[in-house]
Design brief:
Length: about 475
């Protein structure tokens, strides 16, 4: 039940995944919140709508199974009553073993939930500066922080901003995919046949790679060309092609575990040896009705005309109709180990918290996790309670401890702090080593969820631990 309002309201800047979650957690604790979002007054280089929590790069939150790092993070957030993850569950689309969502319905549902909450006041404007130190504030502007606010952050922290370049994949109309050449399947037959797969033989693959290498790229507008660092977990497909002849085949075009029944019996070794594809391009469903499909791992900065020309060389996509072309944008993040505590409070200003990708975590789930913790702690501060940090044995705790405590080798991305996705490598070692990887990850999960129990409450996670 919503409790009495606490004044003045907490300010949350940015209504992406982190800001949406943070605002909801503040309001759910009975604390008023002002949610400031610059769209549509000012557009970002990558967003396409004014809805909250718009998914820019992909529609997937990663592996669903809780014995995977991304899946464990999702399960922790479910246990903590995350609005974003429970909404993602309601608007999931088939994606094999991953949690993928219908982007439009997902964002619309989150926007409607916040608009309807009586303690949430939404302000559609650009935030040009940091609020005063007396104001409890969550900074959740994401990797696309506007230049005016980024300049304020540089002045406040005394450090030049870190950044890297990120890119989004193209989306095509499902009806334009030739299913006479492509086929439906999930890798290793896990789950239903949720992906559309476009197989290439060796000659087709080499021709496609050569076309990528020769295609014209879009200019990096307003960016410093010499500092075009890429995030290694989201490389443009043309960058993968440049890194070697087989790089794509061992990455997003990996053919292993994919089989078209029209080739014959998958269990027949002779058939497998003669018919297996040299490479496979996968497409993942974007919407509930299966009308839109994105090219998995095909982030790109090619010019739009070049994308159409080159991607139509893929068997099955010869007549593809593009709903959205790939784009590249600059992502900004803080050098968090020198600035933040594990509570996500700034060391120099405890009333200012940061959440989401701007803190140096990577992936949708990590952004939501940061929003949950920052929103929880903002509500606790407003109520006169001590902030919390989650145990490092949980995936959320491991990520937030990492951004607060990781070694940092100076300004800029090279040699310094770099963004980190959820990973079992962040968790403390188990008391008893387990050699089998699947069992080891299951043990990490069991320990994590057990250690998370004291922080969960149906009364509202913000008040669960005093």
């Amino acid at each position: 039940m919503v409790q009495g309002c606490v004044n003045p309201p907490v300010v949350v800047i940015g209504a992406g995944l982190a800001g949406t979650e943070a605002a909801w957690q503040v309001a759910s604790a009975g604390v008023a919140v002002r949610l400031v979002e610059m769209r549509p007054v000012r557009r970002s280089p990558a967003h396409h709508s004014a809805e909250f929590a718009e998914l820019v790069c992909s529609n997937s939150f990663g592996a669903l199974s809780s014995d995977r790092a991304a899946g464990l993070l999702q399960e922790e957030l479910r246990q903590l009553d995350s609005l974003v993850i429970t909404t993602a569950d309601r608007h999931a689309v088939p994606a094999g073993g991953a949690l993928a969502v219908d982007r439009g319905r997902f964002s619309a549902a989150l926007t409607a939930a916040l608009e309807a909450h009586p303690l949430v006041q939404i302000e559609r404007r650009e935030q040009l500066d940091l609020p005063n130190p007396e104001q409890i504030t969550v900074l959740a502007t994401g990797p696309l922080t506007s230049e005016a606010l980024a300049e304020q952050l540089r002045a406040f922290t005394g450090r030049a901003d870190c950044h890297f370049f990120d890119a989004a994949s193209p989306i095509v109309e499902g009806e334009s995919i030739d299913l006479e050449r492509a086929f439906r399947a999930s890798r290793y037959d896990k789950g239903d046949a949720d992906y559309i797969n476009c197989p290439l033989d060796r000659d087709q693959y080499l021709s496609f790679r050569q076309a990528l290498l020769e295609a014209e790229q879009a200019p990096l507008k307003d960016f410093e060309q010499e500092s075009a660092n890429f995030f290694e977990g989201c490389l443009p497909i043309e960058e993968l092609a440049r890194r070697g002849e087989d790089t794509m085949r061992y990455g997003p075009l990996k053919p292993i575990g994919l089989w078209d029944p029209r080739w014959g019996d998958v269990n027949d070794r002779e058939v497998r040896r003669n018919r297996r594809a040299y490479a496979v391009v996968q497409l993942r469903q974007e919407d509930r009705d299966g009308r839109l499909w994105n090219l998995v791992g095909f982030q790109t900065n090619l010019r739009w005309a070049e994308q159409k020309r080159v991607l139509r060389l893929i068997p099955g996509l010869e007549n593809a109709e593009f709903v959205r072309f790939g784009v590249m944008h600059r992502n900004t993040f803080l050098e968090s180990p020198q600035l933040l505590q594990a509570t996500l409070q700034f060391r120099r200003r405890p009333t200012l918290l940061a959440a989401g990708q701007i803190t140096g975590t990577e992936g949708y789930g990590a952004a939501v996790a940061g929003g949950w913790l920052a929103g929880t702690n903002a509500a606790r501060l407003a109520r006169g309670l001590d902030p919390i940090s989650l145990p490092a044995t949980t995936m959320i705790g491991a990520l937030t401890h990492f951004v607060a405590e990781a070694p940092c080798g100076g300004e800029g991305r090279r040699g310094g702090f770099q963004p980190m996705p959820p990973s079992f490598g962040l968790l403390p070692a188990l008391a008893e080593p387990i050699r089998d990887k699947r069992r080891r990850y299951g043990a990490y999960r069991d320990r994590s969820l057990a250690d998370l129990c004291p922080y969960t409450s149906r009364r509202g996670a913000a008040l669960a631990v005093v």
